[in-house]
Every structure is written in C-alpha cells, then in structure tokens.
Design brief:
P-loop_NTPase, about 650 residues, single chain
Length: about 650
C-alpha cells in the first residue's frame, strides 16, 4: 500500500488493507516486484494473489528468489528465468564504484590487480562489492596483491562471499565490530530503523561520546562505516527523514557467525527456555508474547529483549488477558489490543494503566466485527466502560479505533489536553456512535480517516471554539470520509478559519454531504456520493487533481475549476459526455482519464483546441473507444494532437 500511494500506511487491519489495495489497483495495469522472497508459506501467497487479481490485462508480478521451491509454487508461467552470473566487465564496474569512490583516478598497477581480483569473483556481485569496499581505503599495492593471492579464492559460491565479507568485518574498529555483531538480533530480511538501531547501540554501551562528537553522531559515523563496507543495503529515506535499511542474508550469516551465541531470534514463546546461558540479546517475532520470569533463569546475562512485531499485539480472541499489559514498558512505542468485545472485567482494563506508559506513540483498539458472539458467551463488558478505562498518556501521536460498539466516545477523546499531541486519527466502523469528539480543536492533528459511521451528521458540531471566530482543524492535511450516509456538513457552523492546511480530501459514499469553501485543497476524490456534493466543489478553486467515481451527472459548476490539471471520471455509468461549458473552463487541464464509463458517447468539441492536454486515457468505454479509433473514428480529429493517448478496448466487469 505504501508503494502504491508513496505515503506511510496508517492501519494494520488486514481487511482494510486488502480493500484499499484493491480499490487502488482495480482495472489498473501494474507491475509489482517481490524481490528476494524467502517465505515458503503457500497459503500466504495464494491470499496475496487473490487480492492482486483485480488488475487489468497486462498487470504483472515479478518475483525474485534464490529458493527453487518458492519459484515453483509462485510461478504462473511454465518456466522460470534463471539469472546467470555477472560478466567480468559488470563485476569490475561494481568493484570500481566501491574501491574508487568519487571517480578518483586509478593507477594502472591497481587497476590491473583489481581486474584480476574481479575475474576471480566468478560473477558474484556481492563478492565484488565487498572486496571493493574492503580495498577502498588501501592504496598500497602490497595490500591489493595480498587479497589477490590470498586463500579465500580456494572457496566457491557463498563461502567465497562470506570470506570476502569477513575481510570487511576485520577491517572495522572494535566498536564497529560490536555494533555490527549486535545486528544478528534481527531476523533475516528485517527492515531496520537506523535511529532505533543507534539507540540500541547506545543502551548497550557499544558506543560513547568522543571529544567533539555527541553519542548520536558517533552512532551515525559507525552506521556510515558499516554501510560503506557493503554490510548494509536497500537504504531508503521516507518523507519524515527516517532512514531504513536491510542486511543481505549472507551478511546476516556473517553477523550471526561473529556474534556466536550472544544474539538470538525467538519465533515462539517456548523458545526462551532453550536459549544458551551466554545469550545477551534476544528479539521476538511471534504473534503475541507470554512467558514467566522463571523462564529467564537460563539467560541470566540477558541485556536486551526486543519485540519486533510492528505492533505489540494482545488478542483476547486467542485467550489472552489485559493483565499481561500491567507493568509493561513499551519500548516498541506501538501497541495493538484486539478482541476487546471479549473483555470480562472493567477493573482489568483499568489495571492496564496506559496513562503511565509515556513511551507509547501508536495505539490501536479493536472490537470484533460481530458482537453477537460475545453476547452468546456472556463475557462482553460494555464497550464504553472498557474504552474509558484505556486512557493513554498525552504523548500519544496516533490512535486507531476499529468496530467500537458504544454510542459515545470516551471523555478522554473529548478532552483536548488528553490527546493534544495526536497527529493521526483513524475511526473505522464505530456504527453506533451518534457524535464525534471535538476533533477540530486538536492543533497537531494532520491526518483524519473516518469509515462507516452511520449516525454522524457533522464531523464536529461543537459551536464554542474561540468565541465568535471559529478556528477548526488548523493543521489537518489529509481527510478521508468513507461510508457515512447521514453526514451533512463538515462543521455544524461553517464559518471562520476552517481547514486552512487541508490539501487532500477523499470522500466515498456520503450522499448527503456538501462542502464549504476550502481554498487550500489540491487533491480531491469523490466516489459514489450525491450530485449536490459534486456541485459544491465549484468553490474549491485551487484543486489540481480531481477524481469522480459513480456520479450520474457532471454539473456545469465544474467549469470554475480553472486550476485543475488532472481529471479522472471512473464508473460514471449514466454520464454520456463532458458538457462543452465544463470543458471550456478547464483551461489548465493536462491529463484526462475516462475509465469504465459505458454510456459515454463522445468527447466535447472544445477538447480539440486544448494544447495543454498531454495525456488522454480511455479505458473500457466501448462507445467512446470506437469513436476515438485512430484515423477512422468520428472523434479522432478532436484528439489527434494529444501526444500520449492510451485506449484500452473491451470491458471488464
């Protein structure tokens, strides 16, 4: 989902994620690359493939793996393509990039030795990279000859690569070696957060401040050293500046080798009793965690216990208890509690004492989809009492609530001081709630997503605010409203300063909603909502991207969107044409997409005078496809000047 949208995904709910992926890929021609696959669970692949089968003809999935059995069950073609080793020239290119950075001048002697080293690599790219990184800081010809004539060439394949990597490891300083060995605490193929890793190094005393360098700077320096030695790869930086990376699985083998038994990865609760006494650092990657203190008696030297779940998860449907969270320090900063309809005691919820967990940044609270089961069991406690008892610390930055059964939200969600640092809020299928909290006063809130709240009429109906002038949602940048049949307006009293920072607005199945003037909006998506809503967007003069789906009529008011650069009409089955006056008003239009509009009969005459249009897509519009046929179509003369035309024929149901 993050790859599709280029944004951080704000939910861990599998059903929601599957729905969103299908909505984004529906009838799209896409290329998905699943690189370096090691998971041998065929059922997971079949589940993923079912989600991805919504694409159009030509949608493709490319899988790379070094496990032939995985290639066998994942493939849909009769044969797989086996990659051969790199040529000597390609290997030299990789080696040269590492050994001679910044296009430094290469002496003839070193180049000759370097090429002989590369020729011995047997076309293995990681070996070439590792040796290049090792020799980068060495200008003495004797050191290069020592590598060329060394014993490592007596090895083959992965053993050769490991020996090359081991050279890089032994060239590190002692602190850097300790920091690298600690990385064995992570499972293979784990995406590692650079900042979190540095903090773990600090906590274990592997690094300390030096003369003019703060301890964080020392950590960054060591991380950079490991990266330049080819021990870290696939480095990415997100929009928040957060750096993440991976280790090649052979590099991970090296880390495990040098760490010996000091680091261990636990996959099941019971694994802890089998750990050697020399274990210092443990990570856990199971679904949920339960063990007794006595289980730790064999690992008296334990210094680090790391829960590597994206969320620390407690699921009552699996028989767990809220008592398991009592006294827990959440160094992972993220907590998901599922199956809250099964909580049998309010005092148990109070005992969690989330308000004392200052490190908690992300909290997800989830009730089951069907409350009849808990009623039959006779264990369900009133949802309003449970959520009231789960009040978090005010440091919380992201809150998700799924399937909440109460009619009213808790008092702590209505008290601005309790959630003053909230940046992201996701409320899904809280169908019985009649009113939302006073969200407009949350000065830090940047992203708000609301799904399936049938009873709500206004996003915020608090009329007090700051006296006469309303200042609502001053920091909100992205707003998504889905399946809210009775939502009429965003605010009960729409006046004053409203949504001054809102750039992205997504609305689906909100038939009663109309919009106020929102001058800052640049990206707007309206799906299966009322005609009045479409009419009301005429005041959004700053919109640059507009997507409309399931609309029965295009109102003339759209002509006022003179800043619009991209327009997409999707599944508008009753729309026959873009009105001439609307087309004439869209003077900035660069991209026009008409997708799945079966009744569309023709293009407006005005389009032939638009020199700004660069892209025209007409997909699965049978009548329009014939009219736009190159050379012979009745509308071809209107569009022949457009440089990029993509017409897909036929119809996907």
């Amino acid at each position: 989902m993050e790859s599709i949208t280029s944004e951080r995904c704000d939910t861990s709910n599998l059903a929601t994620l599957q729905k969103r992926v299908q909505e984004k890929l529906q009838n799209e021609r896409y290329l998905l690359v699943l690189d370096d696959v090691w998971n041998q669970d065929q059922n997971k692949w079949y589940q993923l493939r079912a989600v991805l089968e919504c694409g159009s003809k030509g949608a493709s999935i490319l899988v790379t793996t070094r496990d032939s059995s995985i290639a066998s069950f994942m493939r849909t073609r009769d044969s797989t393509h086996e990659l051969s080793n790199l040529s000597d020239d390609d290997c030299w290119s990789l080696f040269k990039q590492r050994a001679f950075p910044s296009d430094a001048e290469v002496s003839e002697e070193l180049e000759e030795i370097g090429r002989e080293i590369v020729n011995k690599c047997g076309g293995l790219p990681l070996a070439a990279q590792a040796l290049g990184s090792f020799l980068q800081s060495k200008s003495d010809e004797k050191q290069w000859l020592a590598v060329k004539e060394g014993e490592l060439w007596n090895l083959q394949g992965e053993n050769l690569i490991l020996s090359a990597l081991r050279l890089s490891y032994f060239s590190l300083t002692p602190p850097s070696r300790r920091c690298f060995a600690f990385c064995a605490i992570f499972p293979k193929d784990k995406v590692i957060n650079k900042e979190e890793l540095t903090h773990l190094w600090m906590a274990n005393g592997f690094i300390s401040s030096r003369e003019k360098l703060e301890i964080e700077d020392v950590g960054t320096k060591i991380w950079n050293e490991l990266y330049h030695k080819s021990l870290f790869q696939e480095v990415t930086t997100d929009h928040d500046g957060c750096i993440r990376f991976k280790m090649h699985d052979l590099v991970h083998d090296l880390a495990q080798s040098v760490a010996e038994k000091e680091c261990s990865v636990m996959k099941r609760d019971g694994d802890i009793i089998n750990l050697p006494s020399s274990t210092h650092h443990i990570s856990y990657i199971g679904d949920s965690l339960i063990f007794n203190k006595k289980d730790l008696k064999n690992v008296e030297s334990l210094r680090t216990f790391l829960n590597l779940n994206y969320f620390s998860t407690l699921d009552f449907e699996k028989g767990h208890s809220l008592k398991e969270l009592h006294g827990l320090n959440l160094c992972q900063r993220e907590l998901s509690i599922k199956g809250l309809e099964c909580v049998g005691n309010v005092d148990e919820a109070k005992g969690v004492n989330l308000i004392r967990k200052k490190e908690l940044r992300v909290l997800s609270l989830s009730w089951g989809d069907d409350d009849s089961e808990s009623e039959i069991k006779g264990v369900g406690v009133d949802a309003e009492q449970v959520i009231e008892a789960l009040k978090p610390h005010s440091n919380l930055m992201k809150l998700e609530v799924y399937g909440y059964k109460g009619s009213h939200f808790p008092s702590w969600m209505k008290d601005v001081s309790c959630i003053k640092n909230l940046v992201s809020l996701n409320l899904e299928f809280c169908k019985k709630c009649v009113q939302l909290p006073t969200l407009g006063k949350l000065a830090s809130l940047e992203k708000l997503e609301i799904w399936g709240m049938d009873c709500v009429q206004y996003m915020d109906d608090d009329e007090s605010y700051d006296g006469v002038e309303v200042k609502a949602f001053i920091s909100l940048k992205t707003l998504s409203l889905w399946d809210m049949p009775n939502l009429e307006r965003l605010l009960k009293r729409e006046r004053g300063v409203m949504f001054p920072s809102l750039h992205k607005l997504y609305i689906s199945n909100c038939p009663e909603l109309t919009l106020p003037c929102l001058p800052s909006i640049e990206e707007l998506e309206i799906c299966y909502s009322g005609e009045e809503l479409v009419k009301s967007i005429s005041s959004l003069r700053g919109v640059k991207s507009l997507k409309i789906a399931g609309c029965s009529k295009l109102p003339s008011q759209l002509k006022s969107l003179d800043a619009l650069e991209s327009l997409e009409l999707r599944n508008c089955d009753e729309v026959e044409c873009i009105p001439e006056q609307v087309m004439e008003g869209l003077c900035s239009l660069r991209c026009l997409n008409i997708i799945g509009c079966r009744a569309f009969k023709c293009l407006p005459e005005a389009i032939q005078h638009f020199t700004s249009i660069e892209i025209l897509r007409i997909w699965w519009c049978p009548i329009l496809e014939e009219r736009c046929k190159e050379g012979s179509g009745e509308d071809w003369h209107k569009i022949q000047h457009i440089p990029n035309i993509d017409i897909r024929r036929g119809w996907r149901s």
